[in-house]
Amino acid sequence: MPLYDYRCSACGHPFEALVRHGATPACPRCASTELEKTVSLVAPLGKIEAIRLSNRRAAAAQGHLDHYSPSDKAKLLQGKKNI
Fold first, then answer.
1. How far apart are CA 73 and CA 7, in angstroms?
2. Do 83 and 47 reside in the same domain of the chain?
3. Of 55, 62, 8, 16, which is closest to residue 39 (Cα–Cα)?
4. In angstroms, rounded to a whole number, what is the distance separating the alpha carbons of residues 7 and 4?
5. For the chain, what is the domain count?
6. Cα–Cα distance measured from residue 73 to residue 64, given in angstroms and rounded to the nearest whole number
7. Does residue 71 share a domain with residue 46?
8. Are residues 48 and 33 part of one domain?
9. How much is the pTM?
10. Which of 21, 33, 48, 75 is most buried, taking the most CB atoms under 10 A from its CB?
11. pLDDT, tens digit only, all 83 positions of the chain
12. Are 27 and 15 contacting, i.e. CB atoms less than 8 angstroms apart?
């Protein structure tokens, strides 16, 4: 399943979603299906774990990971052992 970035036309909430072919995602904040596909953030080149975690923390601080559950979000921000 491909991962797409969306912005909800109804409430303006940006989020990403795994979408099966033919499925229509809904906004996790307002449940609207009026969505716009957006350009995904570019992952940093390189394999340095500290850079990856730093970018994850920055994304979390900006609200880009707010669609994850608190436990999934904690796993993403912990590091390599949980990936």
1. 20
2. yes
3. 16
4. 10
5. 2
6. 11
7. yes
8. no
9. 0.49
10. 75
11. 578 899 999 999 999 888 888 888 999 999 999 999 998 766 656 567 777 778 788 888 887 777 777 888 788 778 655 44
12. yes
